[in-house]
Structure formats: C-alpha cells, structure tokens
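Model it.
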Amino acid sequence: MRSGADGANWRQVMFFCGILSPLFYLATDRLAGRLLNGYSFAAQSMSELSATGSPTRSLVVSLNLVAALLMIVFGAGVWRVGGQALLPRITGWLLIGNAALGLIGTIFFPTRFGVRPNFASPGVIIMFFSVVCSVLAMMFGAAAFSGWIRVLSIAIPVSYVLLAVLRLTTGASSPAGQAALLVGAQERTMVYSFLLWVMALAIHLLLSRKGGR
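Modeled.
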C-alpha cells in the first residue's frame, strides 16, 4: 500500500511540473522582454532574447533550462500515466522532444542578436522540429485523452491552420514589411497557446488521478 501511495505521490509531482514549466517559460519571456531596452513583443522574435550578444541571453538560458527540465519530467509523467497504452506514451515522448529540442537550439545553436536568421541554419531547423513536436503532441493528446482536454487539443491546432490561412490571404494585399511587424505576436500566439494546452493537460491529469478515473 505504501509503495502504491508513493507512486501516486510521484505522479502528482510529475503532473504538477506540467503547470510550473509553462509558467517558467511565460515568466522568462515577459521578464527578459522588459529588461531588454527597446524590445517589442509584437515585432521581435522570442529568439532575440536568447540570441548571441543579447544582454538577456544568460538569464533566458538559465530559466529556460529549468522550464525544459520541468517539461521533460511532465512528459515522463504523461508517458507513464497511460500504462501500456500507445497514444499517451507517444504524447509524452513528443512533449519531451519539444523541450529537449528547444533547449538544444537555445543553448548550442542561438541566433545572432539583431540579425535575421537563415531559415536553413541548424538552429532554425531544430526549432522547427521542436514546434512540430508540440503540434503533434496536441494531436496525439486529442486521441489519447477525452473530455474537455480533447476539445482543446483539437481547437488549438485548428486555430494554427486558420491563422496561417488568414496570414496568407491578407499578406498579398498588405503593404511590404507589415507582416514582419507582427512576427513576435504571431510566434507568441502559437507558443503561448501550446503552453496553455500543457497546463490544461496537467490539470486534467491531476484532477482525473484525484478522482480515481
């Protein structure tokens, strides 16, 4: 009985990491953006805050390391909660992949401060696959879990598609450079919504475990 209780307590801790990790990511972005003089959350990419030469790089890397480790622990908790079920395990691995790839890109392949990155650069490619992991995690999460978390898991990726279509249809008629002025806002819409989903999944798992479901 004690072993079972200890295992349940550890699962609770792992699920709670799914709440802490997004809060760390969000707080880091807001804090670093405010500390960097002249930084625009709407017009500048999040990678500028951790870029080589950025005054906030050391702060962002340190806090993102904590956030990524918390996300990895949560991913392991999602992997374990499904037992032998395949879909929760895949969801957990995708969460771990998202955090690990994002951390690798931030630490080892940062962009240069004030320089627009080459889309074929290793850092951009790694971050792209990190985003792919986040989208796939929500899609597999929609299949793995039921209830309101399934609705949210479907709604967020669908909103990504709708935003992409809207951007393409309005981009042609927009003045040159106007889309670039919203790079930060568009990026944060995707990242923040994924972090919201992670928190929602963590809360769902905490509530379902307490309820015995």
